[in-house]
TrEMBL record, chains A, B:
Residues 7-67 form the HTH tetR-type domain. Residues 30-49 bind DNA. It comes from Arthrobacter agilis. This is TetR family transcriptional regulator. Pfam families: TetR_N.
Length: 242, 242
DNA sequence: TAGCACCTATAGCACCGTTATATGAACTGC
DNA sequence: GCAGTTCATATAACGGTGCTATAGGTGCTA
């Protein structure tokens, strides 16, 4: 019978640690800060988590389960390739939403002590890819495809986190995503801008056009028109809305 | 007039720090260990580097310059795409050779304090890609291509470092490398988004996007925006020469 | 009420990064 | 040659850190 307004010390420790880690910009957080914020003394921490590292591991584990829940919560569109895009974007978004947590989860992996949850993330992505494979859309094994996609996804997210939020260019994500997907999956019959149902992929075509416009500006559009045009193009190719 | 057998304390500190960081498997290394290994007392460290972090930054900076030297030392084969593969593989190899250093260099980047050397690495890769662009083998701008390639390269290397050396599968690297390269560059002839000169064809890409939009309307644009967008697209597609 | 887990607090240890102060060494101008 | 200056190193200590030996509640079962 707990009072509702007052979570147990263990929970308060977890929350305090998570909050302090998220605020304090990557600088180390002391156990004293945490225990004070949780209104608890030192031995309580060590009773519940054994270690400072144990507490942080618990925070990371919670982060992973939040991430995996979000991934599993995504709908299945019936178009496997489209699902891949969705999961990729969701991964990036999670990283941008929880940058410090993400750095510990995916950027800091020590060889031997690697969180097993990364393997879960990989396994889940593999499931999504297995659906693509079932639709005969994969040109490599789901396992290899999952590893490659996850690696690229992490690299892109780390790079986006590393640069100031203001000048973040999400097209890096869209572009790399399409690169990996098109290497791993086949766009049905031959046409690189068309997917299974024969419906042309707007995103792929938009990215191609955007790329082409980088090196050669059309003279049919005024510079102000071009500016707006490129903005829309960006919007289409990053599919952040939806 | 230095004795040859005895490097200056500053150098000894640097070497000791680098060695201890490399050995001690990612666990924190104390200033006392370092100063003891360098046969030096604490104030010497602070005189030369100001800070523990300053010392570690110096180690990282040395790592970066070693990396960049290796990159710049690679020969130019005359085949830009082949060069890209070589630089990619060299990056991965550097990460596997100095895993802990690599983690600090590329896996640990804090947004504000990001080492400027990462930008140098990016800039160098951009130079290599500029050569590919000059050979009319690029379908996106060198800058975007460099960012995408570097991001994927880092992601793959981190993933390889994270798994036990025994079961490392380098094919993950090769596969992802080819994915990114083929999305960024064209294998000489035959690419539908590339015209004879090898420069990306805005017209072809615009036509493809136009076609794609016929059957699937993006929800990122309002209907009035879409109308104008399609009109401009038409104008670009019907371009005569150039 | 007694016993028994469980959880929490007091007080302190050993270590850490860091520095105020002092000492030595090497070069300068005279 | 020697005072003055500057650079490089050492002694000793301070406050903060992760952690724990020990002891004190607290609620449960008997």
């Amino acid at each position: 019978m707990k009072k509702v307004g007052e979570p147990a010390p263990k929970d308060r420790l977890l929350r305090a640690a998570a909050a302090l880690l998220a605020e304090s910009n990557g600088e180390p957080v002391s156990t004293r800060q945490i225990t004070e914020a949780a209104r608890v003394t030192a031995p309580t921490l060590y009773h519940h988590f054994g270690d400072k590292e144990g507490l942080f591991d618990a925070v990371v584990a919670e982060g992973f389960s939040e991430y995996l829940d979000a991934e599993r919560g995504l709908p299945t569109s019936g178009q496997p390739i489209e699902d891949l895009r969705m999961h990729w974007d969701n991964h990036v978004q999670f990283g941008l939403d929880h940058p410090h947590l993400y750095l510990v989860m995916f950027g800091n992996i020590r060889p031997e002590r690697r969180p097993s949850m990364v393997a879960s993330a990989e396994a889940f992505l593999e499931e999504v890819l297995a659906r693509a494979a079932a639709a005969a859309r994969l040109v490599v094994s789901p396992r290899e495809a999952a590893r490659s996609m996850l690696a690229a996804n992490i690299g892109v997210t780390l790079m986006l986190i590393a640069e100031p939020a203001a000048k973040r260019n999400l097209e890096l994500s869209a572009m790399t995503r399409e690169a990996v997907i098109s290497a791993v999956a086949t766009d049905s019959e031959g046409d690189p801008t068309t997917d299974t149902e024969g419906t042309p992929s707007v995103v792929v075509a938009a990215i191609a056009l955007n790329a082409a416009l980088q090196s050669s500006h059309p003279d049919q559009l005024s510079s102000s028109e071009l500016k707006l045009f490129l903005e829309w193009l960006q919007r289409i190719s990053s599919r952040s809305g939806s």
